[in-house]
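Ticket #379: bound-state structure for iron/sulfur cluster.
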Amino acid sequence: MLHIAVFGNSKWSLLMKDILEKEYSDLLIQDGKEGIIVDALVVLGAPQNDSEISVREFAQRYADGKMIAIIIPKEYYIHHNNLVLAFLRSGIDINDIYDGIRLNDRVRTIPKLVAGLITPTLSDPYLSYLEFHVADHCNLNCKYCTHYSPLVTEPVFTDYEQFSSDLRQLKKYIPDIGIIRILGGEPLLNPDLGKFIALTRALYPASIITVVTNGLLIQQMSDDLLALMRDKMAFIHISFYPSLQEKIEEIKRFLYEQRIPYTITEMTTKFNKTQTLTPNTDEDFFYSCFQASCTCLQNGKLAPCYAPFTTKYFNAAFSKELPTDEGIDLYDDELTLIDLKTALLRPMQRCQYCVSGDPYPWEIVGKHSVLEDWVVDFG
Ligand code: SF4
Ligand code: SF4
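RESOLUTION: The complex was predicted; output attached.
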């Protein structure tokens, strides 16, 4: 028998374990292959019972040859890429990390899909997460904004035609995405936001689509945009900063009355300053960077995070030459799915200029910041 593990302890992980050990294992045995036993559920925190083990314990059993693979159910969406990076960091071979199919009742009744229940993550035409900007500038301008929005001197909206072409090009490689987040800057500043949402829904009918906003413009959203969001099942996610504190209950009521589902972060009172001008050659930083799974699409390229596309604003503001414009060229004729997914799991040159940094009180910097506001090694 093949001894493997499933990530997580949610109902999806338990369902995946059940299908693997019953339907899928039987199919393998009928096919003259070895069956499957799921030895453990791998959890990020402390194991709560005998069926759970930590990532470290899994890595040890894998190194000892006692387990040969890990399956990550697709329902972990936003965490999926971070999990893959964490397993790579623990010494698990990328070819032994598998994605599950989307688990829902309809899929479970279709035997031919059950036969393709798991796919090595590198050859799975699926991304758990994608984000894209519709505006690079913002109406809040927070100090230490990791997308450099306060350094964007003029309004910069994403070109719809270019984006439309890019998303269609991406779909040739990646026909399914778990969660797609539309952000910026402040996405509600873009008068064409509805067009971006409609196109995204048309190309990715199964994805969760969320508009990530600081909330300041929510009550000014047009009736047309609200109706389109209901129709296209697009949600709102509010990044909650102190400037919204007095209006937050009103905004929640507004979204409830408009029947727009929403989520809200805890109020952010601190930001980490995460940039350095002194190159850091420790590649390990990338594998533990939570933003390394914020796969970002812009101008025909895909990158592990937004930094290659927004660092130009930092360079222009302070006459620096940090790496920009890295990423995977979606229009490269030689590009394969495996190339694309492999590149998303590798550090970029730009990663050398990130550090974990220290927390500073959140505050608005406006459009007049100085270098010291952005880098840890100033002076
Ligand atoms: S709200 Fe603040 S952190 Fe978010 S994009 Fe705007 S300036 Fe950046
Ligand atoms: S540039 Fe690299 S290290 Fe910096 S936030 Fe992006 S993925 Fe993380």
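RESOLUTION NOTES: The chain is about 30% helix and 20% strand.
TICKET STATUS: resolved
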